[in-house]
Structures are given as C-alpha cells and as structure tokens.
Amino acid sequence: AENKPLAGRKMIVTAGPTHEPIDPVRYIANRSSGKQGYAIARALAKLGAAVTLVSGPTRLPEPEGVTSVQVESAKDMLAATEAALPADAAIFAAAVADWRVASAADQKIKKQDGDLPDLKLAENPDILATISQLSEGRPNLVVGFAAETQNVLENARLKLGRKKCDWIIANDVSPETGTFGGDDNRVHILNGEGNQTLPLMSKEDVATALAARIAEFFHGK
Ligand code: PMT
C-alpha cells in the first residue's frame, strides 16, 4: 500500500543504554535515554514494518504496535537481538557498553576503609559487528550509529568499514550538543554512495527521515 511501504517487512531496532553489573546493586551505564531508538521503532511501525525493539533500561513507555524486549546487559542485548532474527533490516541505536566487569560479585561489595575494590573489565560482544558479519541470515540492511565527540565523519566512516554494516548514522555527542538524553539530533547518513547531512531536528523527525530512506531502500526489492 502507498502509506505502508514496509508492510510484510521485519525489522529489529536496539535502543537505550546497557547496564553492566558490578554487584547485585551497582552497575556501569551511560547517558542514553532511548529516545532516538524508540522514535525509530515507532516510525518504522508507522510505515507498516513488524518491529522488534530490543531495549536497555529506559524511562520510556513501550511503543504501541511494536514488540518490545527489555534487557539489561550487552550480553543479554546480543542474545535478544539474535533471538529476534530473521529480519529484513536491523538498526542499532543502542549505546551498548563497550566493557563489563569481568566477574560481577554475587554479594554486595562491602566498603572496607581504604581498601578499594579492584574492578577488572572485559570487552563486551559487539552486537552490530556480530550481526553485520553473519554468514547466514544476515539482514539485507544493517544500519549502525556512530556516537562521536571529534572528527565525526572521519571516525564514522572508519566504523562503517570496521563493523561492516551498510549504513552508519553519525551524530556528535559532545556534551554541549545534548544528543545523549536530549530531544534533538543532527545526523549524517553515511554509506557506500557518500554522506548526507540532515539539519538539526527533533529525534522524531530524524526517525521519520530515516524510516523513509529505509522504505526507499526496500522499494521494488
Ligand atoms: O538514547 P538517546 O538519549 O536518544 O541518544 C541517542 C544516541 C546518542 C545514543 C544514539 O543516537 C547513538 O548514537 N547510538 C549509538 C551509541 C553508541 O554506542 O555508539 P558507538 O559509536 O559507541 O557504537 C557504534 C555502533 O556499534 C552503534 O550502532 C552501537 O549500537 C553498536 N555497538 C557498540 C558496541 C557494542 N558492544 N555493540 C554494539 O552493537
């Protein structure tokens, strides 16, 4: 149908931060609110796609008309993303923690005057790179984000090559931009054909523009 160009297509969207446990009550996290990813899930559903939203902990209500899966850690987010396959497209807007505490404590770590806990970190799986490099069942369109604080386009293009996704949505997350947690975003869409810079707009409008680009990609496929 004209206004449901993504009808019959399955899409996965990741959103929000991850929480990496230190002990039963403490965790490592970041400032992602989930707003950008949730807006993308809604915009794709509006165009008719069957969307699974894999979300880290946020304060946002689950979008209507979308299948939501709530997770905490990067490992859980990878498992939930893999469980949601197959999909025509996957969009990775989550701010996944790059590191977790190598062995989280089973009991609350006690404060012992002057004796500091020695937190050893381990690298988390890269969900975007894992799905981009699937030899079987790779989505036709894999879209990553690049959150940068300097040399935005240059670093984003390096990420596109390294992670082997099809498009990268680059955004500047320097504190003065308010991109993490705020309502607005200015993005650059990078792919094999070049770069397209969108003006500063609401995260809702970024999502609508991105969903339209995705519908264009699948048109006639
Ligand atoms: O949630 P909001 O407050 O609305 O903010 C939106 C946002 C700034 C979080 C979002 O627009 C954004 O940029 N998301 C990606 C954040 C990020 O972690 O970027 P990165 O450059 O570190 O990672 C690059 C890509 O790899 C991302 O698609 C990320 O989801 C993915 N990744 C990273 C690490 C990892 N272990 N697994 C991943 O899948």
From TrEMBL:
Binding of CTP, residues: D98, K108, P125, D126, I127, L128, F145, K159, K163
Catalytic activity: (R)-4'-phosphopantothenate + L-cysteine + CTP = N-[(R)-4-phosphopantothenoyl]-L-cysteine + CMP + diphosphate + H(+); N-[(R)-4-phosphopantothenoyl]-L-cysteine + H(+) = (R)-4'-phosphopantetheine + CO2
Phosphopantothenate--cysteine ligase: region residues: 11-221
Keywords: Decarboxylase, Flavoprotein, FMN, Ligase, Lyase, Magnesium, Metal-binding, Multifunctional enzyme
Cofactor: FMN; Mg(2+)
Ranges annotated as spanning the membrane: none
Name of the protein described by the UniProt record: Coenzyme A biosynthesis bifunctional protein CoaBC
Source organism of this protein record: Sneathiella chinensis
Parent-protein residues present: 182 to 402 of 402
